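quick q for whoever's on today - can somebody do inverse folding on this one?? i tried earlier but teh output was garbage lol. tokens:
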């Protein structure tokens, strides 16, 4: 029987299809000193569950997000090269991470293969090269493992139960922090956890919804 995610553990939810997950992991030396469990989830399944339209389906949003990812990479001094097609199927890369134990060095190497070198991991010859890179010779066989696929599906379902709606997402002290630009907030709340219990934070966290269909200024 598959065990559920331990909600008390600090976690980092990611999908290799996300350039912002890559950029955030490249800032690992800035993360708060907690034992974050690297947890791969399928971003598209999160979108489907929450009824969100993927950014790549909105042409102007798609272009902006790619430019923003490049801008953030240049701003942070992080090498960045988009794969030739996006979105790509990240499933095999996710399964490879699970098969390899999912530790930070492995996950970071996979991200770098995709987002630093610009390789599409769904292309067979690229996936073969990636397997060799991380020292897993039977990667193709592992990618076909029902057990690994079940673990990835379970990760995603459990993440949804916790309220995860996108990646990258930190979960710390039963709170979620979404997006590459949320790192300063994560660091602040790690040092000052009582901020989340402040009167104003509690008030806006339970703010009543306005008129249905009203569009907020930022998504």
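ok took a stab at it. sequence:
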């Amino acid at each position: 029987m598959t065990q559920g995610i331990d909600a008390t553990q600090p976690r980092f939810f990611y999908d290799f299809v996300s350039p912002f997950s890559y950029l955030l992991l490249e800032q690992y030396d800035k993360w708060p000193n907690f034992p974050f469990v690297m947890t791969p989830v399928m971003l598209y399944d999160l979108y489907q569950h929450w009824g969100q339209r993927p950014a790549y389906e909105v042409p102007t949003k798609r272009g902006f997000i790619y430019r923003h990812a490049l801008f953030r990479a240049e701003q942070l001094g992080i090498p960045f090269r988009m794969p030739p097609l996006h979105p790509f199927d990240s499933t095999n890369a996710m399964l490879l991470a699970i098969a390899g134990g999912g530790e930070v060095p492995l996950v970071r190497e996979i991200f770098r293969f995709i987002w630093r070198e610009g390789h599409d991991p769904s292309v067979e010859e690229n996936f073969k090269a990636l397997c060799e890179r991380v020292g897993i010779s039977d990667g193709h066989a592992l990618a076909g493992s029902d057990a690994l696929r079940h673990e990835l599906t379970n990760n995603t379902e459990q993440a949804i139960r916790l309220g995860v709606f996108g990646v990258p997402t930190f979960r710390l002290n039963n709170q979620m922090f979404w997006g590459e630009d949320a790192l300063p907030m994560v660091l602040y709340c790690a040092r000052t956890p009582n901020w989340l219990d402040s009167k104003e934070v509690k008030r806006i966290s339970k703010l009543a919804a306005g008129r249905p269909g009203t569009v907020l200024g930022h998504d």
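fwiw The CA atoms of residues 83 and 118 lie 4 Å apart. also The longest strand covers residues 11-14. so keep that in mind when u check it
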